[in-house]
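Consider the following assembly input.
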Amino acid sequence: MNIQHAAATEPGFRDSVNLMVERAIDLLDLPEGLSENIHTCNSTYCVRFGVRLRGKVHTFTGYRAVHSDHMEPVKGGIRYAMNVDQDEVEALAALMTYKCALVEAPFGGSKGGLAIDPTEWSEDELEKITRRFAYELTKRDLINPSQNVPAPDMGTGEREMAWIADEFRRMNTTDINARACVTGKPLYAGGIAGRVEATGRGVQYAIREFFRHKEDVQSANLDGELEGKRIIVQGLGNVGYHAAKFLSQEDGAKIIAVIERGGAVSNPDGVDIDALKAHLTETGDVRGFKGGKFQSKGAALLTAECDILIPAAMESAITLKNADDVQAKLIVEAANGPVTAKANEILNDRGCVIIPDLYANAGGVTVSYFEWVKNISHIRFGRMQRRQEETRQSELMAEIEAMTNRKFGDMFRQNYKNGSKEIDLVRSGLDDTMRCSYECMRTVWRENEQCPDLRTAAYIVALQRVAQTYSSLNL
Ligand code: NAD
């Protein structure tokens, strides 16, 4: 570590997010007092509740923070992890406010968490705990289709969201929009096609969009296309797995290492992501996987040689301790807050480009937005127009073939004929969101000489939008 950097102190996650926001606020000319108002977390509810399990009462601590309700409902995931605390949920809720503004999802920012290690409890026990937590939050309208809509995050997924939705429905039997009280549900419980993989898919679309801008690729001292780029991924959970899978299987990138809790697996020819995921699911560890070299000190690979580093596990993976040694030219923050504010400064000085969390992992909330719209409109996307599109397109092809006396190829015929299914529309909407948001962010980065990086640009875009909404509020 550089001696000067060794002397600097590392801010906590929440201070780190604050520092990043303040950097953007300094470049904006917001009315006096407004920036502080936007900046401040509106409220945090902490609940301690008991559940009778294994013959005794266990007490759990949960949180739901509302950072900004300038738009309602507020939106943000619920995380299950032992280190969940007030500071963490407030930092994550703030990120949600700015993320929603950046990708134009019409929500304020919120986040929740339960201090629990989900691996310590059976499925039945987790269901009891989740339902009780949902009951506590619902009682205070901290789960509500028009006020506060949770989603999955670290340690939670479709299963937990289905329990939450059902608990809400039981407490609100006449609410016709009850299913919209939470997103990330399984399809059978009112979910939407493509939500499970949405965050990873969004990471893929974000990287594709970055590679469409040659000037940006050069800024990262990279060249050429995404195909063949060497990528290291930290965390093979929901986000990391899907991002790694799509980038390797659809874009020809090479995942040369995967870092997990118990160590890392590397393979210069590319790790088979599906095989590694299957091994991890089966054994709970990446150790013993045949398709690569295992090393127990996995975090060391965060600084290994590669083109792109995708931290997709948790916050503060790249800090003052290791930022000097990071060799990746591009960091894509699939996790929330994986690069601390101080590490960000070091990486900026070294010319490493960072695609920031509030953009890179916004695919989840974007598709959650689509799911919420689907739930309040009570109809699957594509249901009304799909067959009509099919008929029209078939007729058009038949007419052209008759006029030209030539036949379309089978592949073209099949692709062109198909009307849009829900999954097609979700992908299209997500791709459009990721492209438009990148464009807004990079325009500020390129045109504002004082804007040092994409992160500050993202915050500038988001803050301007939030400030605009505030200007018409009766404060
Ligand atoms: P997850 O629980 O599905 O996966 C996290 C993975 O990281 C697990 O496989 C875990 O073993 C691994 N991990 C944990 N600590 C690690 C460590 N120290 N080193 C290496 N690996 C470690 O969680 P997720 O939903 O994939 O979320 C990951 C990150 O993405 C979080 O920061 C979350 O806030 C963010 N995020 C998630 C979503 C979503 O839709 N799930 C949306 C936006 C952002």
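The chain has a mean pLDDT of 96. Ask yourself how this observation constrains the way the partners meet.
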